[in-house]
Specification:
This protein is of the alpha+beta class. The chain contains nine helices and 16 strands. About 6% of the residues have low confidence. The structure holds zinc ion. Zinc ion binds next to helix 4.
Length: 319
């Protein structure tokens, strides 16, 4: 893994990953993001239930930094061709609950009370789905960006899911917890390293379990490497009775941009070239298999299928 490249590429995006200052940016006010009236959506995958639980969204002015390798006019043209606004993008955050018998796995966490005011809705949506935080026995973490892990711990330090074992990808954990790398990190990335230490580093040791991406965590729940967005990001696939669901994490940010035009690089991808190759490989597979997919930043209900479209893919949400 090319560590210098990860560090250099990560700088631009890091401060935008739920670490504070971005939320007070003095950009034009485009209003509040669109939030789903009902932030709970259930689907059956064989004998397993998968529940999308929205944590909120932010509205982000669309500047020319958002897509690194395409001119802003092209980006706006692709949005306009889909009838979408071109001055801003809404970025939703949707963790998923996997319910298999009496076992409940929460996949990524949102912000809890650490994020902007239009986030932190996971707890209410979990309750609306019939669950309390203490009912969660396992939290699966795809990668260590703030919007995916900060919901593990309240602003006051308390553990949001006190009974949960937290499963993390070993290469992701090794990257962010490396003391030398943290001490050498460029100033713009220091906050991200500190955040990982606050949220994950402070967990009781027996509560954290690392897995190697590719490993089957329990029968029918398979992890897979999806490196590039971060050094150790993992996807999660549920297989039951011939059906499947794959949680794509941040394989792509806004699918109307980066699934349709998969070679474009979002500012948050730490290794854009690796992320691009991973994106093409995984989208090709889930489209060919007609697998249900879930995307953390996909428009709610955030569950659907990927269909080939032009040189890329289009997200078709479930009805
Ligand atoms: Zn994310």
């Amino acid at each position: 893994m090319d560590r210098r490249r990860f560090l250099a590429a990560g700088i631009a995006g890091t401060s935008l990953l739920g670490l504070g200052s971005v939320w007070s940016q003095a950009s034009p006010n485009y209003g509040l993001p669109q939030l789903p009236a009902n932030g709970v959506r259930r689907v059956k995958v064989g004998a397993v239930e998968v529940i999308a639980l929205n944590d909120g969204a932010v509205r982000r002015p669309l500047g020319d930094e958002f897509v690194r390798n395409a001119p802003l006019e092209q980006v706006k043209a692709l949005l306009a061709s889909q009838g979408l606004p071109t001055d801003y993008v809404d970025v939703p955050y949707t963790p998923f609950l996997i319910v298999s018998g009496n076992t409940r796995f929460l996949v990524d966490t949102g912000f809890a009370d650490n994020g902007p005011p239009t986030t932190g809705r996971l707890r209410a949506n979990l309750a609306a789905a019939g669950f309390q935080p203490q009912d969660i026995q396992h939290v699966l973490v795809s990668h260590y960006h703030g919007d995916h892990i900060n919901g593990l711990r309240g602003k006051d330090g308390s553990l949001v899911f006190p009974n949960a074992k937290v499963h993390v990808p070993a290469p992701e954990h090794a990257f962010w917890m490396d003391e030398i790398r943290a001490s050498e990190a460029p100033a713009a990335m220091r906050g991200a390293f500190e955040n990982v230490r606050r949220v994950i580093g402070g967990l009781p040791k027996e509560q954290v379990a690392t897995f190697e991406p590719g490993q089957e965590l329990v029968p029918g729940l398979i992890t897979a490497p999806a490196y590039g967005h971060t050094p150790g990001m993992s996807t999660f696939t549920v297989r039951s009775q011939g059906e499947s669901f794959t949680y794509l994490a941040d394989l792509t940010n806004i699918p109307s941009l980066f699934a349709r035009s998969p070679d474009w690089a979002v500012v948050f991808d730490m290794n854009p070239e690796m992320a691009r190759l991973t994106r093409r490989r995984v989208f090709e597979q889930v489209a060919r298999e007609r697998s249900l997919v879930g995307g953390f930043h996909f428009p709610f209900p955030a569950i659907g299928r990927m269909e080939p479209s032009g040189g890329g893919w289009q997200f078709r949400p479930v009805a």
